[in-house]
Specification:
The complex is a heterotetramer of chains A (504), B (350), C (40) and D (395). Chain A is mainly alpha-helical and 504 residues long. Chain A is 33% helix and 7% strand. Chain A has helices spanning 7-24, 61-67, 97-117, 127-130, 148-157, 201-218, 228-232, 234-239, 273-276, 311-316, 324-331, 335-341, 353-356, 362-365, 410-423, 425-431, 454-457, 471-485, 493-496; strands at 34-36, 40-42, 58-60, 78-79, 84-85, 137-139, 168-170, 175-177, 256-259, 269-272, 394-396, 406-408. In chain A, the strands form 6 sheets. Chain A has a two-stranded parallel sheet with strand order 1-6. A two-stranded antiparallel sheet of chain A has the order 2-3. In chain A, strand 4 (78-79) and strand 5 (84-85) form a beta hairpin. The longest helix of chain A has 21 residues, at 97-117. Chain B contains 8 helices and 9 strands. Chain B has a 3-stranded mixed beta sheet. In chain B, strands 2-3 form a two-stranded antiparallel ribbon. Chain B has a two-stranded antiparallel sheet with strand order 4-5. The longest helix of chain B is centred in the C-terminal third of the chain and has 85 residues, at 265-349. The radius of gyration of chain B is 46 Å and the shape is rod-shaped. With 40 residues, chain C is mostly helical. Chain C has one domain (4-34). Chain D has 395 residues and is mostly helical. The radius of gyration of chain D is 21 Å and the shape is globular. The chains are: A mainly alpha (504), B alpha+beta (350), C mainly alpha (40), D mainly alpha (395). Chains in contact: A-B, A-D, B-C, B-D, C-D.
């Protein structure tokens, strides 16, 4: 019989190959969600030049600014006196795929390699070093956003020289010029991508802002941040002290003006611009695109430039924070108000129409109508004294069995809620009367009364089909739900009702 | 993972290619008993007060908690499961932080629409009642504990300490109370209404309504509506279900269908094998038979050949004998003639 | 027949009985079939 | 010893004394087992096992039932090979294989009786109330029937020993029907034992879980059966050397033939397992910790024995075949352990895993000892290892 190769040898070989080969197949390991620092830039690659074969490179700008401090920004960016182009210099205006790839590689890998040769700290030179695959990546990068105090600080540096930043594009002479009274937000004209000379918002802002900061800091003057973290890191933004007091930003807006669409019969709304300004961080709180009036884009029937949002929607959409009603509903979720408003459906209630539309209709007012007169602040009548209708304490004993009855400090609760309402003009105006807040708990009673009693609807057994809980659950959900929402730390069983000695 | 039951091939080695569609190959849809009950568990309302555990122990006459075990929250530090003396437990799945309250969930038998505990029981000790609960009959149970092993919710417990009459211990959805028109003990005891008892189809509508009303509060999914064919307990959550140890991304095919998918092949084995094997046996017998015939034929042939040879040999032998005889006769004649001749000479001489 | 479990319990129960009977009937069938060979 | 027996090789007269080391050890084990079972039935399963709510099935089900049935598959494999597929040359090993099968199934029933909460209700599925949708019902039915089939199939040796010639003829005539019935029943419950795990879609690790787990269980049972025949042959051949009539060469020829069968079965088993992984697209799981353990089972205990068997067959090397057989037996037992409690509840944290208690191991060993003692008692008296001279021609 011919002897084959030693059987155990061939066997060992087969086992080794299979044992090693197979597990290599699946070394994917679930990775926790990958968090990118605020100064990490994902290197873009224009889709027009075809898809990326390897995962996009996450470029850590902070390390590079720290390491290449001495060489300065000119190493990668085109820097002129008052502007810095954020685009990567070697890759500027390259349009062919391989050219762009080579440009990136020679610049980055070349630099790393030369630093390694000079035995300096350097980045990776191997493909996998930069092109790393991450499943779910979340970034701490925060879009830079303006507020009144930041604008005022710039105003102090360039008093009444709005032309430093604001400009308009003169189509006829094809040049930028400053026009008084036409100052607007950058995003009004600068979009997501460069359109010819009109740079994208990213490029435009970095070019002018960062450029100016760089130039002033080089000249030793007080200047804003020049690194990514300065504007894009939440924690750093918090460290900038807001001005106190913040001067009003005047741009020719009226203190009070009428808001009313043509050929509508409903009364116009006397809008107090002065009181509303401090409610938002910056003008962009309501003027989210530009400072033109809403009707310009949000036409009556909706237009493409207004995302087909009709004029009515732009004022009344409950889910948007730019619309009047939407912003009011948001205020109703503040901690003082959320106790009751959490269970009040967010919808435009017919009752409150008259509160806003209190002016004459467009037709009655005629062609030229004066701005609305200053109206007195609405102050609610004070809380009436305790009576049996407004008792100091209420003893809830109908269910007392395992626990003692509840001594509810009714007066204290009403006073706390009332104080919150009295303090806010919005709440006072819309509540209209002091008794209005009673509907928070007595949610199906005539205003100011407490008939019918909870027991009337919430019986012994829950009506599961229509999601109406039984009495015990109604009490607990109402009280504990409100406490939890308003951050009141009384949610334990014995916080409200004492336990009976017999033990739980 | 999608395992298609219908396409399962029950091929078995050593037999003819035995392909049978082994899934529960019925196209009829079983909607369950109309008007059956269910319970809606809203985990966003649960505050972890464990009144349901106390009520459950009282209703089922189980050993109560010692002292005020209710208030010590250390019990939430590690996750518990149902045991034979605690048919329901509340676990904490997320600690409270300043923005969000803690997240709790109540564990108990889910009373599946298509119970796999009932399916795997060899003595049919479980029964899905028209009212909804799945009931267990201890008088049939032989304690094989296959149901405890099969339950995907780890909900069944067993009396291991009981040597002679161990029973499977599980929630019965307070079936006696339901029959009296009451609601289960835990639903009645829950102060926050986190457990609502009602008709299952109504509760699904209520759950959808709650999700629609506060989209930011709930994950838009009702657990128990379809998972493994659906369960009587429906769960709403504010956090992903995976964090509540609930498998929300499983097939809607009921476990009984998956569990019994192979059993449709078994009758096929019973019916196909005899024919197959008898054929095999006949084939091998016929082979022997043929082999035997060949042997006989060969034997007959050889005998026939042998006979012929024998005859030839005989014939040849006979011829030779005849020739020898003739030669002998010739020789004798020649001798006689020679002798006669010699006598003439002698006669002549004499 | 409201639940799949009832349906499976019913059908599989009967199938076992039917399959058992078929199995038992196979033996006389086989004998009936191979009668001729016996004396061959 | 029936007088009518002519020159029977004398039974194990050499070691007749009761106090031989084998007897003493097995007596100790059996008494220990009995004591533990007594405690089990007085103070419940909690006192004698580590079973828990998450792990209702432990070593007694994992080994005695799951592995016991697989290892006892030698019976139906050899009897069907000889009587149905006409491989006459394996006839001498049929009887020991059938006896091993019968004792194996007896061991399964013992394990079941120890593990069941109320063992006296074991016949309930048939007499009291049947749960036909349950794979366990089908297994119980088949194991009960197959136990009787095996019992009848192993009676010829006893009848010969008792000299009941007429009965022996009756049983002889039923052999073919019994073998067919045995093969049907075995195919059913070997695969349905696997189907019992179809329902634990989430609790059994995806690498071990597969929609074709019944097929995996059946093929591995055939492989285990063949290997068990070789291993049992090795032991009984040496233990009852004086009784064996066939020549060493013939016995080796049989074992090498079995090795070939086992090699083919293991190759098919390996293929079916790999298909199971690709059908569920679980290649990536092979990279995880569980994947490593799965590969230990798949490569170490399926591929390696398969290669050893094939090399043993090519080189005609009996020792290698026996090594492969032992490895396969351990492999199938490991697979059953993996499915029953190692890869079961794979998501549970480490602390809650199941580890058999010493009492469970002791009882299992006691059952095995009981089976070995019974085998030895029967083989000494009845014509298992040899053919009874008067009944040479019968089936």
């Amino acid at each position: 019989m011919t002897r084959y190769a030693n059987p155990l040898g061939s066997l060992g070989l087969v086992v080794a190959v299979v044992a090693l080969g197979v597990p290599g197949l699946g070394l994917a390991s679930e990775e926790a969600t990958h968090i990118m620092s605020p100064s990490t830039v994902v290197m873009g690659f224009p889709e027009s030049l075809g898809a990326l074969q390897r995962p996009a490179v996450e470029f850590d700008h902070a390390i590079h600014t720290k390491e290449l401090k001495s060489e300065g920004c000119v190493k990668c960016h085109v820097v002129e006196e008052t502007s810095l182009n954020p685009a990567f210099k070697p890759a500027l205006n390259l349009t062919d795929r391989n050219g762009l790839i080579d440009a990136y590689h020679t610049a980055c890998v070349g630099c790393h390699q030369s630093r390694i040769d000079a035995s300096l700290k350097a980045g990776p030179v191997v493909c996998g070093g930069c092109h790393v695959r991450h499943e779910a990546a979340t970034s701490q990068w925060v879009a830079m956003h303006w507020d009144y105090s930041l604008h005022a600080r710039h105003d102090q540096v360039f008093p009444d020289k709005c032309g430093t930043c604001h400009h308009v594009y003169n189509k006829a002479e094809k040049k930028l010029e400053y026009k008084k009274g036409a100052e607007d937000s950058c995003s009004a004209c600068h979009g997501d991508h460069d359109e010819g000379k009109n740079l994208s918002l990213t490029n435009a802002s970095h070019t002018s802002c960062v450029g100016c900061h760089l130039e002033r800091s080089k000249a030793g003057e007080k200047a804003g941040p020049t690194d990514c973290v300065g504007c894009h890191d939440e924690s750093v933004l918090k460290t900038y002290p807001p001005l106190d007091p913040v001067p009003r930003l005047l741009r020719g807006q009226h203190d009070r003006s009428w808001i009313g669409a043509e050929n509508t019969r409903s009364g116009m709304v006397p809008f107090n611009h002065l009181d509303h300004e401090p409610q938002a961080d910056f003008c962009s709180g309501c003027h989210h695109a530009n400072l033109d009036p809403c009707v310009k884009c949000h036409t009556a029937m909706g237009a493409p430039e207004g995302d087909l949002v009709t004029l009515q929607e732009s004022y009344h959409r409950v889910t948007s924070s730019f619309s009047c009603v939407g912003c009011h509903e948001e205020r109703a979720r503040d901690t003082e108000c959320v106790g009751c408003h959490r269970s009040i459906p967010t919808a435009v209630s017919q009752r409150s129409c008259a509160i806003c539309h209190s002016g004459p209709s467009r037709k009655e007012a005629g062609p030229d109508y004066p701005p609305p007169p200053a109206t007195a602040k609405t102050t609610l009548p004070p809380l009436p004294a305790s009576t049996d209708k407004l008792p100091d304490t209420v003893e809830i004993k109908v269910l007392a069995s395992t626990y003692k009855p509840v001594q509810m400090p009714h007066r204290k609760i009403v006073e706390k809620l009332d104080a919150g309402i009295r303090k806010s003009q919005l709440a006072s105006t819309f509540h209209g009367t002091t008794e209005r807040l009673c509907a928070g708990c007595h949610h199906h009673s005539q205003e100011g009364t407490f008939e019918p009693h909870c027991r009337a609807c919430h019986g012994e057994m829950a009506a599961a089909g229509i999601d109406r809980p039984d009495l015990k659950v109604a009490y607990h959900r109402q009280c504990m739900g409100c406490h939890e929402a308003m951050g009141i730390k009384k949610v334990g069983c014995t916080d409200c009702h004492a336990a009976k000695e017999v033990g739980s | 993972m999608t395992i298609s039951r219908r396409g399962f091939i029950g091929g078995v080695l050593g037999s003819a290619a035995l392909t049978g569609t082994a899934g529960a190959s019925t196209v009829e849809y079983f909607g369950g008993y109309p008007g059956r009950y269910g319970l809606l568990h809203d985990t966003t309302l649960c505050v972890g007060c464990r009144s349901c555990e106390v009520a459950c122990k009282k209703v089922n006459e189980l050993p109560p908690f010692e002292g005020n075990a209710i208030d010590d929250h250390s019990v939430f530090d590690n996750k518990r499961r149902t045991t034979d003396t605690a048919l329901t437990v509340v676990n904490r799945y997320r600690e409270a932080d300043d923005q969000h309250p803690a997240v709790y969930r109540k564990l108990q038998c889910m009373h599946c629409e298509e119970p796999c505990c009932a399916t795997v029981c060899p003595v049919h000790a479980f029964e899905k009642t028209p009212e909804g609960p799945v009931l267990y009959h201890a008088e049939l149970c032989m304690g094989c504990r296959y149901c405890v092993m099969a339950c995907p919710y780890y909900a069944l417990a067993y009396e291991y300490e009981n040597p002679l009459t161990p029973r499977v211990m599980r929630c019965t959805m307070c079936y006696p109370r339901i029959k009296e028109g009451l609601i289960p003990g835990c639903a009645e005891a829950c102060p926050m209404g986190a457990i609502t008892f009602g008709r299952r189809d109504e509760l699904i509508k209520v759950a959808r309504e709650r999700i629609r009303k506060n989209p930011e509060r709930y994950v838009d999914h009702i657990f128990g509506e379809n998972e493994f064919g659906g369960t009587s307990w429906l769960i709403l959550a504010g956090v992903p279900f995976k964090e509540l140890d609930l498998h929300a991304d499983v097939t809607h095919e009921p476990l009984p269908a998956i569990g019994t998918s192979y059993l449709s092949v078994v009758p096929l084995v019973i019916t196909i094998y005899p024919g197959l094997l008898a054929a095999f046996y006949a084939f091998s017998k016929r082979k022997d038979h043929l082999a035997k015939q060949e042997i006989e034929a060969a034997v007959a042939e050889t005998r026939a050949k042998a006979d012929e040879e024998a005859e030839e040999k005989l014939a040849k032998a006979a011829e030779k004998a005849k020739k020898n005889q003739e030669k002998a006769v010739e020789r004798a004649v020649k001798e006689a003639v020679a002798k006669a001749g010699a006598e003439q000479e002698k006669g002549g001489e004499s | 027949m409201h639940t799949l479990f009832d349906f499976l319990t019913h059908t599989k129960g009967i199938t076992y009985i039917v399959a058992g009977i078929l199995l038992v009937c196979f033996v006389p069938f086989w004998r009936f079939l191979t009668e001729r060979e016996k004396n061959g | 010893m029936s007088e009518s027996a002519t020159s029977l090789p004398s039974s194990a007269s050499g070691r007749g004394s009761l106090l031989s080391p084998f007897n003493v050890i097995s007596a100790v084990i059996l008494l220990g087992g009995a004591a533990i079972l007594a405690v089990r039935f007085t103070r419940g399963l909690a006192a004698t096992t580590n079973l828990s709510y998450n792990y209702p099935w432990g070593l007694w089900i994992g080994f005695d039932v799951m592995s016991g049935v697989a290892l006892a598959a030698g019976g139906f494999v050899t009897s069907s090979a000889v009587y149905l597929f006409g491989m006459k040359e394996y006839k001498p090993i049929v009887r020991p294989a059938i006896l091993t099968g019968f004792l194996g199934y007896f061991l399964v029933v013992l394990g079941l009786l120890a593990d069941l909460g109320r063992p006296w209700r074991l016949p309930y599925p048939f007499i009291r109330s049947a749960g036909p949708t349950s794979p366990l019902f089908e297994v119980a039915l088949c194991v009960a029937l197959y136990l009787t089939v095996l019992f009848i199939e192993s009676t010829p040796a006893a009848l010969e020993w008792l000299g009941l010639r007429w009965w022996r003829k009756v049983v002889g005539s039923m052999t073919i029907v019994l073998t067919i019935l045995g093969l049907i029943l075995s195919t059913m419950h070997q695969s349905t034992l696997g189907a019992m795990y179809l329902v634990s879609v989430l609790r059994l690790h995806p690498l071990w879980y597969s929609a074709q787990i019944p097929v995996h269980f059946f093929i591995s049972a055939v492989a285990a059966g063949l290997s068990m025949v070789i291993v049992e042959g090795m032991i009984s051949h040496r233990a009852f050397h004086h009784q064996v009539q066939i020549s060493e060469e013939r016995f080796k020829r049989i074992n090498i033939g079995l090795a070939k069968g086992a090699a083919v079965t293991l190759a098919v088993y390996f293929a079916v397992k790999v298909i199971g992984i690709s059908l569920e697209n679980e290649w990536h799981l092979l990279g995880t910790g569980w994947g490593m353990w799965y590969l230990v089972e798949l490569i170490g205990f399926v591929l390696v024995p398969c290669i050893l068997f094939s090399v043993a067959y090519r080189e005609d090397n009996l020792l290698l075949a026996r090594v492969a057989a032992i490895l396969t037996v351990f492999g199938v037992v490991l697979n059953r352990f993996n499915v029953t409690f190692i890869a079961f509840n794979w998501q549970l944290p480490e602390g809650q895993r199941y580890v058999p208690r010493w009492t469970e191991i002791w009882v299992t060993v006691a059952f095995i000892t009981f089976a070995v003692v019974a085998f030895r008692w029967i083989a000494q008296r009845m014509p298992i290892m040899y053919e009874h001279p008067d009944y040479k021609d019968m089936h």
